[in-house]
Amino acid sequence: MENSVYKKVLEFKERHPWTIGWRLKQNSSVVEMHLNPDEIVEYAFIAQKNDNPFNIFGSAVIALTNKRILIGRKRVLIGYFLNSITPDMYNDLKISSGIFWGKVYIDTIKEFVTLSNISKEALREIETEISSYMMEEKKKYPPREETNF
Length: 149
Known about the structure:
Elements: H1 4-15, H2 24-33, E1 41-48, E2 59-65, E3 69-74, E4 80-85, E5 90-97, E6 101-108, E7 112-119, H3 123-138
Antiparallel strand pairs: 1-2, 2-3, 3-4, 5-6, 6-7
Helix pairs in contact: 1-2
């Protein structure tokens, strides 16, 4: 299982070289460090974790496992950031395509995650992977109580 995230990110980058992403190995190591023993990485890609198309220094590795979505970013000097999105926290996915790059918006109960500078040819693949996984997993959770204000 060693470097499974990194290998999947490299495969993604080979298929979609126009996606902007740096420090693939370092960012992948953050996700790999937080994988549970029973977690299997099913899909991984690179993107910028921000909404600014000119900020190309926020590279993150996004991994879809059999349990959740993990978003890992290694800081340049010390430390890292990790986001974990479980199916029960997931609300919706939105795709936005521009001339060269696109964005993926993941809406959760607690936050709104923006992933940008993704090759527009990769958007359909990412949407299919995340949506089909989440639709299957959400069936396993009981419906949430609606509150009327």
